[in-house]
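Please check the following.

. . .
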Amino acid sequence: MTAPSALETASTADVPAEAELTDGYHLVVDALKLNDVDTIYGVVGIPITDLARLAQAQGIRYIGFRHESNAGHAAAAAGYLTKRPGVALTVSAPGFLNGLVALANATTNCFPMVQISGSSERHLVDLKQGDYEEMDQLAAAQPFVKAAYRVSRVEDIGRGIARALRTAISGRPGGVYLDIPAAVLGSIMDAEEGAKTLSRLVDPAPRQLPAPEAVDRAIEILAGARRPLVVLGKGAAYAQADERIREFIESTGIPYVPMSMAKGLLPDNHPQSAATARSLALRKADVVVLLGARLNWLLNHGEAPQWNPDAKFIQVDIEPKELDSNQPIAAPLVGDIESVLEVLAERTKPGQITAPTAWREELAARSAQNVAKMAERLKADPHPMQFMGALKAVRDVVHERPETYIVNEGANALDIARNVIDMQVPRHRLDSGTWGVMGIGMGYAIAAAVETGAPVVAVEGDSAFGFSGMELETICRYKLPVVTVIMNNGGVYRGDDINPLETDPSPTTLMLQARHDLMIEAFGGKGYRATTPAEVTAALTEALASGGPALIDCAIDPSAGTESGHIAHLNPKGITVGNITPAKK
């Protein structure tokens, strides 16, 4: 190919006049295509606008966002859903930093993602000469990602792309930063020689089998368990080893508790699910199999009183450094989940691992009690509408459409939705994950729609929605089947807080009369206002049937909700505002 003259920023003095030429832009696109990257999420600007144009012209779908963090969150979700690195494209300095938020979050959640950013010229940055958007982006990224690389020569672009993709997906997946200075993108070289620098990855995420003796140790511990339990984490969902996981659970009869993004690996109404008896299960289990789950804050670090202090842990993880991070691991199983379960099945004798009937019946009885209590709560239909009523309506509509993806973020909107909206299908629930970060909503929803073509319902707290709400325009621009459902109680946590000293709103107060439904109509989507569960049901049914962008603004009682949702215990116990005497002026 012959590179367009608009992209030629480097000298061609060393290239024969008769040679066919290429440049850094073409080599980046060629390297991505060679490695089956078919979608890029990003925000264009100097120096990557032409890169996005060229990618689109060469058949890679480009999804343009309004903010780099949201584009990055979309790339991360794409990586989680497809088991292939999602790719985000950003400009230099501020754009890079915006994207880095999502890249760090991807690393924390173990999602494969590559952020490619243009950057200023190295010799100017290194001497701090004040170049346009000058920043040492490689150094800034390194503390927050799995790996960071810089391409300094045009002939290294293929190697840089390949290395970034392999690093992102191999072993424990994570975020990788790839820095490509503007001068490298514009550099020109012989096209035939350039093609030789490109490579297609071979087996970038190879199977990792556990040691046989490690498997035997785990079998021996499980065989002696009186109250065994399996905890399914989102790593189990990412592994796409669904049949192996189901076979292990059902053949042993062991009860299981799914973390939120592992819901649906087995249907939430499965008889062995202890999700509705979670507290009892954790407190009494004597042997716990951690399958793609980590003993971090989401599991109280494995500590009493939430956990049995005498529990033995069996942990399946592809990253050895994760083991013993919070509790001693009695039987570490290092390997990918599918391989570990395969070897476990091969080495287990028939009937060797069986959950005692009394344990299963105890958990089932507690589950039945809790389900009955929840059913009573869900029967209530107070006015103004509560979270429970609105989310029950969402649940009932989605039950009829199990192909629908649920994206969920907020405080109370997140916590209550986790309890109310049960899942039947794997990897159809995406939420704020390990960091509990707000702002993932629209990015995750867009990625789910783009990567799967299936309908998406994004259940958002009104505060959480504010972090990425402008991406409604992106959803409408690409005509995506995303329905955003906002739990609008007019505040961060709740909307009835007051400022005792001034007329300004309190720190947690938002605009209760906000009409989010009108926002989407400004971009050509369909807006609904719902004040009762019946109205939520009607609106969501119609919106999903339309197959297009829509938003339902659910008017929730401003007094509904609790401070910080289910994690209020993490708040410092400080003095209340009412006990503070204003300083004299």
The two ends are 73 Å apart (CA to CA).
